[in-house]
Design brief:
Blueprint: H1 2-20, H2 29-39, H3 49-65, H4 80-109, H5 115-127, H6 130-136, H7 142-168, H8 174-200, H9 207-224, H10 231-244, H11 249-257, H12 269-276, H13 297-311, H14 316-329, H15 335-355, H16 362-369, H17 372-381, H18 383-395, H19 403-425, H20 432-441, E1 449-452, H21 455-466, E2 475-478, H22 486-491
Parallel strand pairs: 1-2
Helix pairs in contact: 1-4, 1-5, 2-3, 2-4, 2-21, 3-4, 4-5, 4-6, 4-7, 5-17, 5-19, 7-8, 7-9, 8-9, 8-10, 9-15, 14-18, 15-17, 20-21
Length: 513
């Protein structure tokens, strides 16, 4: 039955996401990823090769299927935006499924008889929360990142199940059974290392989940299986992690070929490491501006609590706190719950200390909120233990609901979340940025030059030019890119007839080189 519930959750989430996804290019980073999916270029640091090449693959599938083509269009038109948007929908639905299975196993280990239904409620709360839904229907890295977070958590849960089973084995077959569990734990660790590398090749913020997981796994492995004493264990972990990082090799290939709007020069080791480590932004920094106003952790706690409550039917945040308390009551008996709590706290504190973004600017606050998606996902897993704790506190017995009550309850939560947030999350008719970019390009004289500043202008115009072949004669010069020394070397060949008087633009003064 659990498998059917997971499959139904995946299908329901995917149907809602596809129904509400952007039909064309969206704003911000989505516009950049969309046009680079067509040219296979490199995005802003750290490059996001997995999402770009994955979006191109999905776009090619759409083209082969004849989806999205209008009569009279060019044969080589590439639907980079739609392909990326659908890929994001698919990753979001898969994250829902894997997260549900992770929670089902955890809730069952806590002794809840309604573990499957509780996991279904968690999946509904997370899948249809407005913040996650918003970024699951456009080509952004967050849905794929959440999928990798869920996979790492599931593998960690499987590893800890092996640990608990090994601790409880007795009898004459103990050595053989422990050896079987040791090998099973080894496989879970190696798979975890591989997906950690894949996650790092998608978005660096996942490191704040990976580090606690790695420490947790290595500690318990040493205490029970002692795989850490074997050289082969470390070699297999390293090989799996490096294999997961292999998509970054695509950046070198993309940079060698070159593309309009491609960021940086990764043909040299210095350029590659500069891009990979986000040195131009500041390594592990979200905001590169100097004119920032410091925001205290207390202020971030208030903002996050409000946003979490808005995303999870307003009762989510107190239940999150109660769920955390229920884990801390008996941490030795609930290792996975303790791991979840450590991951959530480590991510939240580390990210907000390093993000250095001012909360006073509504636009920058919106940028910052995107990185709460991971925290919301993990936090939602602690909501149901909080609800079960309330049940135990009030009725003095463990949560157990008859199937005639528990299954309709799952449906009620799904309908509540979808009903409250569907209209806001529905972007199926949102073509505003495409229309905006066309209104810029179409009236221009032949071979005009656009001097642009801002993602929504540059990326949407490039998308129409590169992917849909609208006014390719127009030359767009991005003032933000002109601030970097690689701009003239990598982008000037796409701007015939334009002469730059210096090597790099002085961004402190307009038009000065």
């Amino acid at each position: 039955m659990a498998r059917w519930v997971g499959a139904m959750a995946w299908a329901a989430a995917l149907a809602c996401y596809v129904r509400s996804c952007y039909p064309t290019v969206a704003g911000g980073d989505a516009g950049e990823l969309s046009h680079l999916a067509c040219s296979l270029g490199v995005a802003h640091p750290p490059g996001y090769p997995l999402m770009i090449w994955g979006s191109r693959g999905m776009a090619e599938l759409l083209r082969l299927a004849g989806i999205g083509r209008r009569e009279g269009e060019e044969e080589d038109r590439v639907l980079g935006a739609l392909g990326g948007n659908l890929l994001s929908c698919l990753c979001g639905a898969c994250a829902c499924w894997v997260g549900l299975e992770t929670c089902r196993r955890w809730y069952a280990s806590r002794g809840y008889e309604n573990a499957t239904e509780m996991a279904g409620i968690q999946a509904a709360l997370a899948a249809f929360s407005p913040l996650l839904w918003q970024y699951y229907v456009q080509v952004e890295v967050f849905s794929l990142n959440n999928l990798f977070v869920c996979v790492q958590l599931l593998l960690s849960q499987m590893f800890l199940e092996s640990v608990e089973q090994a601790k409880g084995i007795k009898g004459k077959d103990k050595a053989r059974k422990v050896e079987e569990l040791r090998l099973k734990a080894w496989r879970s660790s190696v798979l975890g290392a591989f997906f950690a590398g894949l996650g790092f090749s998608n978005q660096h913020a996942i490191v704040f989940y990976t580090l606690p997981i790695v420490c947790f796994v290595l500690y318990h492995d040493t205490a029970v299986f002692n795989n850490t004493a074997r050289l082969g264990y470390w070699c297999s972990l390293l090989a799996a992690f490096l294999a997961g990082l292999s998509p970054y090799l695509l950046m070198f290939l993309s940079s060698t070929k070159g593309a309009v709007g491609s960021w940086g020069d990764q043909t040299t080791l210095t350029g590659f490491l500069t891009h990979l480590l986000r040195r131009e932004y500041g390594t592990f920094r979200l905001y590169s501006g100097d004119d920032r106003q410091y925001t205290s952790l207390g202020r971030w706690v208030m903002l996050y609590a409000q946003d979490f409550a808005e995303n999870f039917l307003w009762i989510g945040f107190p239940l999150l706190l109660l769920g955390s308390f229920s884990v801390l009551r008996r941490p030795a008996e609930d290792l996975f719950g303790l791991l979840l709590l450590v991951c959530l706290l480590f991510y939240w504190v580390a990210f907000h200390v390093l993000a250095n973004i001012p909360s006073s600017d509504p636009l920058l606050l919106g940028v910052h909120k995107r990185f709460w998606i991971q925290a919301h996902l993990v936090g939602s897993m602690l909501i149901m233990p909080g609800a079960a704790f309330v049940h135990e506190l009030v009725l003095r017995r463990k949560l157990h609901l008859h199937r005639t009550v528990s299954y309709p309850l799952v449906l009620v939560v799904v309908l509540l979340q979808v009903g409250l947030h569907a209209s806001k999350s529905d972007q199926s008719s949102n073509r505003y940025l495409e229309v905006y970019a066309r209104s810029i390009l179409e009236p221009l004289p032949a071979h005009a030059i656009i001097l642009s500043k801002g993602d929504n202008i540059a990326n949407t115009v490039r998308y129409l030019q590169v992917c849909e072949h609208v006014r390719p004669d127009v030359r767009l010069i991005d003032q933000n890119m002109m601030c970097y020394r690689w701009f003239k070397q990598t982008q000037s060949r796409f701007l015939p007839g334009v002469t730059f008087p210096g090597e790099v633009r002085n961004c402190g003064e307009m038009f000065r080189f």
